[in-house]
Amino acid sequence: MPDEVVKGFMDIGTNSVHILVVKYFQNSLGTVVFQDREITDLGRDLYRYGKISKETLDKCRLVTDRFTAAAINMGADEVRGFATCAAREAKNKTEILRALESDRMDLRIIQGQEEARLVELGVFGAEGPSERTLLIDIGGGSTEITLSEGKEKLFIDSLDIGSVRFSYGFHNDPAEPMSDDDYDLLRRRVGMTSYRAVHSISEMGFAKAVGSSGTMESLAELCAGERDGDSSYMTYKELRELMTRLRKMSIEERYDVPKLSRGRADIIIGGGAIAEALMSLFGIERIEISRFGLKEGMQTDYLLSTGERDFDVKRSSVLSLANRCHYDAEHAEEVRDKALMLFDIMRDLGIHRMNNEQRQMLEYACILHDVGEFINYIRHHVHSYTIISNSAMFGFDNEELESMAVMAKVHHRRFPDLRDKDLRNMRKKTAVSTLKCAMMLKMADILDRHRTRSVSDIKAEIKDDDMVLTLISADDIRMEIWSLESVAHDFRKVFGLGLKTGYKKP
């Protein structure tokens, strides 16, 4: 691959068209430079009338032409377009291809299992999930189901159930409230369609469930609005209560529901019925929500198709975000080096038993800890938290993003404990390791307080009930030592040891 190349990726879906423009660098997953979305209603025509009208195709052509032009204006030498369920099911699919194809876009209609593969690749990246994970992607016309662990795809299928299909394909008026009988009929249809998937996956089991697509994101936003605003997950109980309320509303009433977009108000009942039924059938009490999907899968698949293998998805995501925020690379790398030095020294001394995955989270948090300065310095630690937790970086799950965000937030000002609101929603093991890593980051940041890279080495030993640090520096670092002494109380709460510090010349 050249040192720099720009590509455009277009997802022509049943409900809307998405464009993603990516700039690739050597050994990098690429940086998104533009993305947009427009509802085109292909599925509403298809499931209501059996074919897609010329008027709808003209609208879709306008959108794809404008998106293609935008990508080319941003330097893309190619735009790849993948049309999904509505295009592959339409009786007039030849007309669709003829209407949308252009010299500037390579358009293909992909099959359901290929769509499922690309969605899984977009959500989890080339390395796949670290634990066995069920992924449910509810589209407008189809729902893609995958079960994967690492790079192994244990089950993959595309089901003929979707939010637009359910809203417009069964003679119910999506503008009217839905009766309990009609809603139960949709749920039973999900059960019949998903029987093979439920049976196979239930036999194999899974450790975690993840949902993707606009439908899942909207449902999670609505559930979170009744809770604490955290839309990174939703529970089955929350979803059932939400759907009980929504299906009794007319579309005019749904328009007034906070967090529900007008463009999705007519199809949210169909999509919610699918989500509720699948969570029940698979026995899912809580599902995490990913903002990634097909277009991100296209982004990664392109890179893999070039033969590129020597890239670290997580590291690439972290560096892309750091560079977009114009971070101070020298300071970030100094903090990283000293924090990892502390991590290794303290592990060797038996002060903690954290593993290399937690060490990696600390490394990435160090690189990103000051990205909030991009907004302003005064509250940069809070801005860093907001940027990281909302970054949706490739390769990271929601808990990992939250853990790194908390580490960045507490490197400055007050240090929290396990009762802090930012730690309450984490698993206890994760919260404890987050606090330990956060303390190391805070100490490392203090050691480069004046951004002079003054500390060349660190020695440590345990004496009585204290960890004694000896800092090696050619400079006068008494101010750094005073700052370290100020965190001794919090250090004892986290590690159960006192903290004493001194320094000597090399």
Please describe the structure with a list of short key phrases separated by commas or semicolons:
single chain; 506 residues; alpha/beta; Nucleotidyltransferase, domain 5; Hypothetical protein af1432; 3 domains; six-stranded mixed β-sheet; five-stranded mixed β-sheet; 14 strands; 48% helix; 19% strand
Average residue-wise pLDDT:
90
The residue ranges in which pLDDT falls below 50 over 5 or more consecutive positions are none
How many domains, as an integer? 3
The H-level CATH homologous superfamily of the largest domain, spelled out, is Hypothetical protein af1432
User: Main beta sheet: strand number and arrangement?
Assistant: 6 strands, mixed
Distance between the termini: 45 Å
CATH topology of the largest domain: the name is Hypothetical protein af1432
The helix/strand class is alpha/beta
Please give the radius of gyration in angstroms: 25 Å
CATH class of the largest domain: Mainly Alpha
Strands of the biggest beta sheet: in what spatial order? 8-7-6-9-11-10
Structural account:
The structure is a single chain. By secondary structure, this protein is an alpha/beta fold. It has three domains: 4-110, ATPase, nucleotide binding domain (Nucleotidyltransferase, domain 5); 114-294, Nucleotidyltransferase, domain 5 (2-Layer Sandwich); 314-504, Hypothetical protein af1432 (Orthogonal Bundle). The chain contains 21 helices and 14 strands. Strands 8-7-6-9-11-10 form a six-stranded mixed sheet, sandwiched between helices. A five-stranded mixed sheet has the order 3-2-1-4-5, sandwiched between helices. Helix 15 (329-348) crosses helix 19 (428-447). The longest helix is centred in the N-terminal third of the chain and has 20 residues, at 54-73. It is elongated. The model has no long low-confidence stretch (mean pLDDT 90).
